Amino acid sequence: MDTTISWKDLGFRYLDTGVYARADFRHGTWSAIELCSGASLSLHIAATCLHYGQACFEGLKAFRQTSGRVACFRPDAHARRMIMTAERLAMVPPPESLFVDTVRMIVAQNDAYVPPFGTGATLYVRPLLIGTSAVIGVHPSDDYAFVVFAMPVGPYYKDGMVPVRAYVQEAYDRAAPHGVGHVKAAGNYAAGLIGDIEVKAKGFPVSLYLDSATHSLIDEFGTSNFIGITSDGRYVTPKSTSILESITNDSLRVIAADLGLKVEHRPVRWDEIENFVEIGACGTAAVITPISSITRGDETLRFGPEDRPGKTLQRLYEEIQGIQYGKIADRHGWMMPVG
Ligand code: PLP
Ligand code: COI
Fold it and tell me: What is 7-153's CATH topology?
């Protein structure tokens, strides 16, 4: 392994650990999990993942906890989401047990790459599912490859949780109401790139998308869910057929209720935005990103302190990270030990 890694300087970037795991669905059955070296796949030029978008992925983290042991955060929930995604894309999903076993194997294999406790860095695990059969008429692949690799990433915020400015992207929609926005289809990310690039060019790190049918409801940020906190202690997050069911958000809703907040998971109108005293974007990579302002056209609305997270988002962040790093009891059974 590369022993020169400076854990504190890691970004959210690809880093080769020299090993990945793979299982194949062929002739109607899943193979055993195989450990492979290198970082390349050999694909048929007519594979359905290349032409017809039969490709999806997951992203989850493994943490070196205070005890020195390594544990993954909710791999079973990520497995179920990949199954839901695969079914929507007419792909054959890996069974939940195959997904979880492969994740645990790759985390165990990469033990030396799981950053030490206290660095704020983690092991990011990327499961990938692709259609591999050669197909030219538009129909689903018979064969699939399930690949899992991992790399050390982060700390996402080297200077702590610094609030960022968001911009409402209305020139492009992220997802249609009965499309594939609720699942982790690879193509969703290609479709979102141009909108995110244009918003970044205006100087805003994050884009916010509204529902594509009416632009009157809040959907989600480019790669993270929306959370609004009200002054009377409500945790409000949109429910919509076109947003990804974030596992971070699902967990934060449970934690919010534990902490005595009233959780509202329902359609959220844009015109409710001024009711929020704190706004956050949540996802696996950054956990919670505080949003200091949202600009829609000529109008800019401000939320929470400009230089630090508001106290409710800070409290939620500490609680979920406490559970992930084993500093707080895993009262909901979310951490799956490895090794
Ligand atoms: N929304 C989108 C579009 C995403 O890509 C992600 C990241 O995976 C999320 C939300 C957050 O989901 P999770 O918390 O499961 O990582
Ligand atoms: C996240 O994990 O929060 C993400 O936004 C996933 C992204 C890297 C695809």
Answer: D-amino Acid Aminotransferase; Chain A, domain 1 (3.30.470)
Exposed/middle/buried for 1, CB within 10 Å: 0-12, 13-18, 19+?
Answer: exposed
Q: Which CATH superfamily is domain 164-324 in?
A: D-amino Acid Aminotransferase, subunit A, domain 2 (3.20.10.10)
β-pairing verdict for 34-37 and 55-57: unpaired
Alpha-carbon distances, residue 130 vs 54, 56, 80, 146, 243 (angstroms): 6, 7, 17, 7, 22
Beta-carbon contacts of residue 305 (< 8 Å; ≥ 6 apart):
163, 292
Nearest CA to ligand 1 atom 5: 223
Give the ligand whose atoms come closest to the C-alpha of residue 285: 2
Largest CA distance in the chain: 57
* Pair 36, 43: CB distance under 8 Å: no
Interatomic CA distance for residues 210 and 216, integer angstroms: 7
Could you give the CA distance from residue 213 to residue 215 in angstroms, rounded to a whole number? 6
Ligand nearest to the CA of 151: 2
What is the pTM for the complete model shown?
0.97
- Distance between CA atoms of residues 183 and 207, nearest Å: 19
Are residues 16 and 39 in contact, defined by beta-carbon separation less than 8 angstroms? Answer: yes
Q: What is the mean pLDDT of each run of 10 residues along the chain (339 residues)?
A: 79 94 98 96 98 98 97 98 98 98 98 94 97 97 98 77 94 94 97 94 95 97 97 97 97 98 98 97 95 97 92 97 97 96
Between the CA of 276 and the centroid of ligand 2 the distance, in Å, is 24
